[in-house]
Amino acid sequence: MEIDEAIIRAKKNDQKAFNYLLHNYWDKVYGFQLKRIQNENDAEDITIQTFSKAFDKIESYDNTYAFNTWLITISKNIHIDIIRKEKNSIKQALSQTEENEVYLVADESPSVEDKLITEQNLAKLLRDIKKLKPHYQAVINLRYFQELSYKEISEELKEPINNIKVKLLRAKKLLAEIIQKK
């Protein structure tokens, strides 16, 4: 399959085309982010967000530009958005502290109410996860509850790492849709 053909098929929601594009461009986008932020986990998260956003907006891709350039631009913009959010939250925190003349030490341990809310939210999340197909449940469980790396998940499920990444990406997207419908 050629890149142009994969893009056309992806615009028609062909899963094999998405997998092909992810497989061909994952290392380029991940490498770009890793050079930028020098943190494997953050680079991986941004790369996943990049492909998620790109696949959601694949119909807006203009083939007069290289697909690689389009992905890198999306990735760069996601990273810039993250930095802006962090800067805004830091600025907000600093301005609030400057306004206060007395500095109080906050008790950050969760209250009984916080613990109850967390437990209820976790129960809701688990119910929503159970609405997914079993193979999506498995990758979410292994990644987020057992905190396994992609390589460990790949070995556990005896599947290639890129398939694991795609499944996790799809599972998160489907889970988000389930949560938003409520």
From TrEMBL:
GO terms of biological process kind: DNA-templated transcription initiation
Domain RNA polymerase sigma-70 region: 25-87
Entry's Gene Ontology molecular function annotations: DNA binding; sigma factor activity
Keyword vocabulary terms for this entry: Sigma factor, Transcription, Transcription regulation
Listed CDD domains: Sigma70_r4
Domain named RNA polymerase sigma factor 70 region 4 type: residues: 126-175
Pfam families found in the cross-reference section: Sigma70_r2 (PF04542), Sigma70_r4_2 (PF08281)
Family per similarity comment: Belongs to the sigma-70 factor family. ECF subfamily.
Protein name: RNA polymerase sigma-70 factor, ECF subfamily
Species for this entry: Olleya namhaensis
